[in-house]
Amino acid sequence: MVKIDRREFLRRAAGVGLGAAAGLGGLPRLAAAAAGGRPQDRRGRAVRCVRPDLFPEPTAAPSERVYGEMLDAACRRLFGAADATEAFRGLFAPGENVAIKVNTIAGPRLSTRPELVRAIVARLVAAGVPAGNVAVFDRYAYELARAGFAAGRCAGATLRGTDEIEGGGYEEEIVSSGRVGTNLSRMLTSCDALINVPIMKDHELSGVSGALKNHYGSISNPNKYHADGCNPFVADVNAIPAIRDRQRLVVLDGGVAQCEGGPGFKARWAWNHAGILVGTDPVAVDTAAERIIAARRASKGLPTLAEADRPARILATAAARGLGARCREIEDV
Amino acid sequence: MSDGGGPRAPLSASRRSFLVGAAVAGCGLWAASARAAEDVAGAGALELAVHPSLEPVEARHYEKIEGDRVRCKLCPRKCEVGDVERGYCGVRENRGGTYYTLVHSAACAVHNDPIEKKPLFHVLPGSLAFSVATAGCNMACRFCQNWQISQARPENVPHARLPPAELAAAARAAGARAVAFTYAEPVVFYEYVLDSARAAREAGLVPVMVTNGYMQKEPWDEILPHLGAVKIDLKAFGEPFYREVCDGELRPVLDSLRHVKAAGKWLEIVTLVLPTRNDSAREIRALARWIRTNLGRDVPLHLTRFTPMYRMRNLPPTPVETLERLHGVARAEGLRFVYAGNIPGHDLENTRCPRCESVLIRRTGFLVRENRLRDGRCPDCREAIPGVWA
């Protein structure tokens, strides 16, 4: 397949450049049109699909097939497309390099599932993006392995920890955004487009960890940015153009979610939510996750995040920075 | 300011060549950031599921708090850290309610430097200091000249396993008289410093700590008996600078300075002079006055020249005239030993007798060209010159 230059792709799309769809990353107009509707039509939207049969048994591995069907259903609603493959045809050009950022810090029981990632990769390939153009990454190879990702490949896509890149894995150039100064993972900077595949859990400092917080794994020095509930640092990181403008889709893995004790896995507070959240707006997806976590906390007799002195202020800050909009109503399919 | 670590070594350097190279480095021109050692973490560490190149050791100076969380008590940040998270420094991690240092024996920079490079001008002049660092720092100074290691996580920089006994042996083999914990920030590799300082002393070496001073009293009480000298960066004399430029606080550094002096340890101070940020006569006057009042007039103060670096490339280098002017300001406040640094060949690098003004130690950069001290005294007027001369 002929690889086309990304700028050429955008020119053929009659031209909305990156960043034009404010708060929705670099979603080209062509992609928006093909996927149904204008970019701003998906601002503030988060679509959830829950399938109780995601886990054949409560402690079994989730089903890749069911993950894929959930993704299809969510994309039908969000994009007006026939399925996720058609939606992906509009989101990603065949010649583009697509990176998938997962979250594997908390180990095998509270990390992005390989089954979901395989379902995403399969639909990218069906949409015309060669598997060789897809890379799945997180910070460290050992964390990916511990989360159940087989070394080196994932459904034909490259699987790599940033730490495996020769020379340290981070760009030499320092990027500044707000109060953040950092170096970006070369796994991120070497892609044209990004799919953010976080998990859904509370966080002892930021309140909620979802799509926005997932990008702490895309920078070299996240440890410097945990004060004050990680605020405004999470928004600062997500406002970095190399992140904001590459990110086209969020597929939040809510197969297993956690409502207390995060970011580490706490069996007592984890549950099989058996769902995913899909959106192009990371603020919308994360505010939907916040709502789901809040409901679970209430059902367990836990105080609200605000009462626990860790409200998710990062979400309001991200919205104020133009990174997206709060989800008014979760769209269930 | 901690001294610069030099260029990074090729990543293919083996651990053996890492140590041999360091031993024959002479004037420390060989850059020794090596790839992770082949003899990495043992089975106990694997259970913790940390990066395979690191070997966690339970940290000192922390307490367990509710819900598998810990509170670090090493530095004034007092990070409260949840499970699988790290403190601000990036090198201490909570695993299931136990706090670990990830950088014990994980050296990422090793050089055999002239001790004047630390800078320590009143400690064993002309000798070599076998200098070591790990990744990490508990500040984020925008002008850091070692930011590639100080602001990095330990997994992300090449490093080699250099346990304390081997460090001391390598220092002896390299002909050093001192072991310096430096470059990034030894506060954050505290446990490694403590164990290595003990090993160095047993080997007849003088351990020195080159630090930002951002450490609590209790770890100072523990480590000071094992150190021979301390150099602390007093980066400015105002909280706004510390907050805005370093993401830290001034007051704990002043506490550390007092504490080190009260413990009777040899102390020297460095202030990196940044144009328009901390270069006013008023500020240096206040700084010098504080030193004289709280530490005594014999504590050497190094006013060093800034060069654009890291996140402060928008400022020009410090004019030499500024350093000369501020030198006069500090001397006028009664400090007897004030130096201007990072201007090789300048007269203000030399040690002069505070009584008769004779040149006692003549330097060009880090090179001692002449040392006229006799039994720690001026050879001309017999004034006692404070320092660690033997």
Notable characteristics:
heterodimer; A: 333 residues; alpha/beta; two-stranded antiparallel sheet; 19% strand; globular; disordered N terminus; B: 390 residues; three-stranded antiparallel β-sheet; 10 helices
Distance between the termini of chain B: 25 Å
Q: What quaternary form is this?
A: heterodimer
Class based on secondary structure composition and strand pairing of chain B: alpha/beta
**Any low-confidence stretches of chain A, pLDDT <50, length ≥5?**
1-24, 29-35
Q: Roughly what percent helix of chain B?
A: 10-25%
What is the share of helical residues of chain A?
A: 25-40%
Largest interface: A-B, 28 and 30 residues
Number of helices of chain B: 10
The largest sheet of chain A, given as strand count, sense and whether it forms a barrel, is:
11 strands, mixed
Strand content of chain A: 15-25%
Topology pattern of chain A, helix = H, strand = E:
HHEHHEHEHEEEEHEEEHHHEEHHE
Main beta sheet strand tally, sense and closure of chain B: 8 strands, mixed
Q: What does the radius of gyration of chain B come to? A: 20 Å
Q: What is the overall shape of chain B?
A: globular
Quick one: overall form of chain A? globular
Number of helices of chain A: 12
User: Which spans of chain B of ≥5 residues are poorly predicted at pLDDT below 50?
Assistant: 5-47
Based on secondary structure, the structural category of chain A is alpha/beta
Radius of gyration of chain A: 18 Å
Question: What is the spatial order of strands in the main beta sheet of chain B?
Answer: 8-9-11-12-13-14-15-16
